[in-house]
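A note from the maintainers: we've had questions about how concatenated examples are separated. There is no special marker in the raw files; a new sequence line simply starts the next protein. For clarity in this README we add a label.
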Amino acid sequence: MLNNNFIKYLTILIILIAVSHNVFANDTSMRSYVLSNNGSLQLTVSDTWRDKTEQPLNQFPPTIVFTPLNGTDFHISVSPMWPYKENLVMPSIEDIEQLVDIAAENAKDQAVENSITINEFENKLNKGYYYSATDKAPKPGEYKYMTQGMIRIGELFVTFTILTNDNSITIVDDALKMISGAVHLHSNN
């Protein structure tokens, strides 16, 4: 009897450890990225990701790059844009869909896929489109899998690229969730 109880408790302990590891493995935190004189972009980012903001000169929009702290290699770039000149019009949702369709069509030459599907994603605040493709002959140092798209986040037009070398759905799903859930806060918020 004692052995059976010990085995039951040990099994429960192992299950609890496994469950807690899975629950805490994907912790996230809200991070804020300053957009010159255009407020900030709020992203819910995995705590296992490193971020770096690349800021060009002359108040042009930045690119936010995410890479792993350790583990599976990936590269995610997020580039928010806004009308930084007077009379500059941002693309409509229809324009975004058309631009993503053109990008997917251009990617077909290098892709394993003969047909590339355009996916839509939206929530209460944001709407955009993306596609995924597999590079048929990546060069050394390049990535094999790419997901790329565009989304409207408040008054921002955001382009993004997700690159991986393994077909890790988790990284892509986490990145798409981060991007689609983003919030643009204006300077006066």
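[label: protein 2]
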Amino acid sequence: MRPRDRQSFGTLRPHAPSQSRAPVRSCSQRALKGSRLGEAVSYLNNQWDGLLVFLDYPRVPLSNNAAERCVRGPVVGRKNFGGCKSVRGTEVAAILYTLLERAKLAGVEPRAHLRAASEAALTGGPTILPHVYREQVRAERAATRSASASPPAPLS
């Protein structure tokens, strides 16, 4: 969940009576405290308020799949870097992987950004960061749209 989303939720309001802990309490009274069921019911009771947040705030996702996908990339990269045979190879792989992931986070095509960044580095131009490249692409698209949308100039 993004910080700005967390701020917009504000304080939690009390839950409706239909969302009470009565079912959890009845299970906890029947389950032995040391048993696995007792531990599970105790965990559910401790996490109850957090479990009901999505009922009060529809923008809260029911799953954390988006966060898991964000974390997956670096974990796979870390696993792959273990196969590098030299320190320099590991550094190059880490740099390349970082460039690709930063491009994804900026919302640009990683291959296109890598091509532009490589061309800039080979020609001695300034480093093109993903967010700068994104703005350049947007400006080029806007210029293309405005050029094609404008009526042709009258012949004189």
